[in-house]
Amino acid sequence: MESLVSQGGRAAAIECDVADENSVTTAMTTAAARPGQITGLFANAAIAATGRLHLLDLDEWERVLRIDLTGVFLSLEHCLPHMIEAGTGSIVTVGSLSSVVAVTGGGAASYKAAKGGVNMLTKSVAVEYAGAVSAQTACARALSKPVSPDPPSRRPGPATAGSADRQRAEDREETPVHDAPGIRRCGVQVVG
């Protein structure tokens, strides 16, 4: 944000509880009262539960979905009218590779399900508001080493080049990103 302001742009960070609609409404009202128009939204609030599905209780499931998915919905619901009024907008939501590819680890099923919902909600916004508002989901996952963007079958070298990557991934109990179908569907649009 400091970088944007130092280049002559205007930005404000306004704290709110995304699981509380009144808090989101207040934040958007506060933002709208500032000079300029609301033309950008970065929806990043999230929590994660741990443990296997059969050990997850309903309260924890609902808490994760309330913050991770409903929080994005509320932010979009209350931000979109301002973007429509401005005639432009750019939305970036934060998903997770765990919502695109089934992997072990990386949080409980509630987190993965919520982030899958964020992915589809963002795609829906991108289609419904095309022309005035752009919407993208950034899907990321912490990696312990750089990963090739090409699947092992497309990399130069012996046919077994990917087997060492797969073994290291199995040792870490995760799927290597280059084997993730659909990963190129996730991206971030940076608006300057």
TrEMBL record:
Domain of life according to the entry: Bacteria
Residue ranges of the region described as Disordered: 143-192
Compositionally biased region (Basic and acidic residues): 165-177
Alphabetically ordered keywords of this record: Oxidoreductase
Molecular function terms from GO: oxidoreductase activity, acting on NAD(P)H, oxygen as acceptor
Family named by the database record: Belongs to the short-chain dehydrogenases/reductases (SDR) family.
Protein name from the UniProt record: SDR family NAD(P)-dependent oxidoreductase
Organism: Nocardia speluncae
